[in-house]
């Protein structure tokens, strides 16, 4: 017999959970002590709970299995909620272990006492407080099963201190995972008929449909039937680049997304939901499926995506069709005035094979998909839930999940400041991450939104809430203070020199790119009027303008 904490860690390791991102407190000390008894468990300290949860998210996306987090009470869990929200939206498996007061102590309502279950339910479909040591590991095994799904999800196991320290813990075995079903025959037949009709049709892909095996299957179907391939606005993880099928992501701006989807007769969802506007805007649609377009679902989040696509491929006779693949093509070496677009071009020109890009560049990354389309095959992680502060922590997790791959993390200056402590963990763990911070001294995306929502009377006080100029943020000094080799680039050549050095030198690096906002001045003022006009323009002109604004 061992205590609860020791048995719990052994249960996790036996289930394949070998990484735990921690920010512990007093209630978790027996779990912390037990880490030394199970060498297979790697414990990674984060200085802020949002880094721990974001790192677990990045790890889960790249490892295809859960990491654990160790968090202190309801306050600690609350500090990590934003990145758990992103993981929930991305259907990423994460197991939260949240310490609680000893069961006999709860009655005294101590200073840190809170309703942890209520905090957890906002982001975690599975929540349980273990009541005794004997049942703890059974609870943990059930939580892990819930994490794994399908679909993947966040599960939260609340661990009272006395359940952790008491003797009588027995490691539990994970129950057999359910076998996901493929699409039923009737759905496949109906979608096959739609694909073989004369109408305009497209697939909208998300989740596992954006991995290479599924992409190759759906690309054969598309080539055979003339269907278009779209990806969700912010995919959990998309495999792309030379030798893989090109997929066009739905635009963030609803007006541009409507241009992409215009004229469709059939839209087929594969591990994705119907497209909607990110926010509501006065006088604009929230639901973006075109009027008259028939919506079909081939595979839901809980179904076998690849098997369903293979079934559909057989139904339309596409098994032997040659898919359209992205040709290898890098952009030229950037020159001239330094802008965010030049950074994106440099990434496309220099990124190594099998890199992992964590994209939280916001407006600074508009050109990134275009410049990296023909680069060597790579993965891209995006901001699934829209809660900023994901990029740097995701990079921590991705680097730990894939230690043999270079991770390139892109963040806006405002986004980076939410979870800047991730740099310290990168240095402590010697992770091979190149962090690029676009310092345009602005919440630039919010300047765009201020224009789009038609907010009236926005003067100096309003605009000051979106401005980061005073005092100026110094990311080089911040990076160096946390042990990360850091450089500032104010010219294109300075950036190229810094980026080339970071790519050939192992370990964490930070490059602060001093760039102007991508959308500012006249461009920013004209954008809402241009977007408003798209619905009234001929489709060919509207599509050309869309490509100009967001390729």
Question: Please, could you describe this protein's structure?
Answer:
This protein is an alpha/beta fold and 551 residues long. It folds into 3 domains: 168 residues, 3-Layer(aba) Sandwich (Rossmann fold), CATH 3.40.50; 132 residues, TPP-binding domain (Rossmann fold), CATH 3.40.50; 180 residues, Rossmann fold (3-Layer(aba) Sandwich). A 7-stranded mixed sheet has the order 11-16-15-17-18-20-19, with helices on both faces. Helix 9 packs across helix 12 and helix 18 crosses helix 22. The model has no long low-confidence stretch (mean pLDDT 94).
Largest sheet: 7 strands, mixed
Strand content: 15-25%
The helix count comes to 23
What is the CATH topology descriptor of the largest domain?
Answer: Rossmann fold
Major sheet: order of its strands? 11-16-15-17-18-20-19
CATH architecture heading of the largest domain: 3-Layer(aba) Sandwich
Terminal Cα span: 61 Å
Q: CATH top level of the largest domain?
A: Alpha Beta
What is the average of the pLDDT values?
94
**Overall form:** globular
**Count of discrete structural domains:** 3
The CATH superfamily title of the largest domain: Thiamin diphosphate (ThDP)-binding fold, Pyr/PP domains
Which percent bin holds the helix content?
Answer: 25-40%
Radius of gyration: 24 Å
Which stretches are poorly predicted, pLDDT < 50 over at least 5 residues? none
List how many beta strands DSSP finds. Answer: 20
- Helix vs. strand class: alpha/beta
